[in-house]
Design brief:
The structure is a homodimer.
Chain A (H helix, E strand, L loop, with lengths): L7 H13 L6 E5 L6 E3 H15 L9 H10 L4 H4 L9 H19 L4 H16 L3 H20 L3 H5 L4 H15 L1 H15 L1
Antiparallel strand pairs in A: 1-2
Helix pairs in contact in A: 2-3, 2-7, 3-6, 3-7, 5-6, 6-7, 7-9, 7-10, 9-10
The complex binds calcium ion.
Chain lengths: 197, 197
C-alpha cells in the first residue's frame, strides 16, 4: 500500500523488517530449556545474540563482538523461504539443495532493502555461511553451542526424540565449539556425556 | 548441578543465558504481523535489534548502534520475573509497582553473572529505562515504533481488541517516535490514521 509522500528508503527498510517478522513462525528442532515447546528461529536468534554479548570474553583474539552480533541477528533470515534444516537430519545432497534455496532466499530478502544496504547484509550472511573468518567461526560456534545448552536444561528432550548419541554431538557440534570456545566446551562436554552415555 | 573442574566464570555465564531462555515464555499484547498469535518478548527483542541494525541511518547524531543493540537485547529480561505491562493498561500506581518488581528482577538476573559484568549490564538496563541518553531514547523509540508496524501489517488486530484510538497511539507512542525517528513516524502516521480513524 503506497501512501503519498512516503520516503522510498524508509518504505524499503520498513518492508524488510515487516517481512523479517515471519522468522517467528519457523520452528526449530530444539526445545525451550523447560521442554514445553520447540523454539522458533527468531527467539533463537535473539538468544544467540545474547550469548555473544555474554560470552564475548571467551572469543578468540581478533573477534569483533558487534560484527558477530550483527551476523547472528541475520543468520537465519533465509529460513523464511528455505525452512530450518535440523543438523542431525542432513546429508550431502540435502545440504546442496538447501544451499541453493538459501541463496535465493538471501537475494529476495536482502533485495527488499536499498541496494547498498542489502548488498552489505547479504555479504555478512555469506561470511557467516562460509565460516572462514574469526567472526563467522565464533558466530557458528555459538549457533552450535546453544542447542546442547537447551538439551542439558531440558534433560535432553529433543536429543532423545531423535536418538542422538554423544558421538553424534561430538562430531557435529564438538569440533566447531572446541575450536572457537574451548572453555565453554569444557563446561558442557561432561554434562552432555552424563545425559547421553 | 556442579561438575568437577567447572570454571566458575563460565558456569555463571552459562547459568545466565539458560535463565534468559524464560523470556521466550513471556507473552506480549502485540501479535505477529500475520495476526496468528501474540508475540513473545524474546522474539520481540530480536526484532527490535534487527530494527536497530536496519534503521541505524535514521538515528539522531551521536547514537552508537552497538550500544543500542546491546540495550535492546537486554531491555525486556526483567519481564522474566515481572511480566509484560501492556502500554495501554498502565496507570501511575501500576507503573510504580512495576518499577519495584523490575528493579528486583534486574538485581536477581544480572546477579547471576560475574560481579563486574552483571553491574555493567544492569547499568545498561537502567540507562534504557531512564531514557535520558541519546542511545536509550533511540532504543525506546524503536520499542514504541515496532508495535504500530505489527498492527499495520495485521490490520490492527491487537489495537481493535483493546479499543485503541489514533489519539491514544499518538499520545503514548507518537511523542517518543517523533523525537528520535521523525522519518519513520512520517512513514507510519498516515497508515495508523487510515487504520484507526
Ligand atoms: Ca541457527
Amino acid at each position: 500500500s503506497e501512501l503519498a509522500g512516503a520516503d522510498p528508503v524508509v518504505a524499503a527498510r520498513a518492508a524488510f523488517v515487516a517481512e523479517a517478522d515471519r522468522l517467528k513462525t519457523i520452528t526449530r528442532a530444539t526445545t525451550l530449556c523447560d521442554g514445553s515447546r520447540f523454539e522458533n528461529s527468531a527467539e533463537h536468534s535473539w538468544h544467540l545474540a545474547l550469548y555473544a554479548l555474554t560470552l564475548a570474553e571467551h572469543a578468540p583474539a581478533g573477534v569483533a563482538p558487534f560484527r558477530v552480533i550483527r551476523m547472528l541477528l541475520l543468520h537465519d533470515l533465509v529460513e523464511i523461504d528455505a525452512g530450518d534444516a535440523p543438523i542431525y537430519a542432513q546429508t550431502a545432497a540435502s545440504q546442496a539443495a538447501m544451499a541453493d534455496l538459501e541463496e535465493a532466499a538471501a537475494a529476495r530478502l536482502f533485495g527488499l532493502l536499498p541496494a547498498d544496504q542489502g548488498a552489505d547484509l547479504n555479504a555478512l550472511w555469506h561470511e557467516f555461511e562460509e565460516a572462514e573468518t574469526p567472526d563467522a567461526r565464533f558466530a557458528k560456534a555459538l549457533d552450535r553451542f546453544q542447542p546442547p545448552m537447551q538439551n542439558i536444561a531440558s534433560d535432553g528432550v529433543s536429543w532423545r526424540s531423535n536418538n542422538v548419541t554423544y558421538q553424534m554431538v561430538d562430531a557435529r557440534v564438538g569440533a566447531a565449539v572446541r575450536r572457537s570456545l574451548p572453555d565453554l566446551w569444557a563446561h558442557v562436554a561432561p554434562r552432555i556425556a552424563a545425559l547421553l552415555d
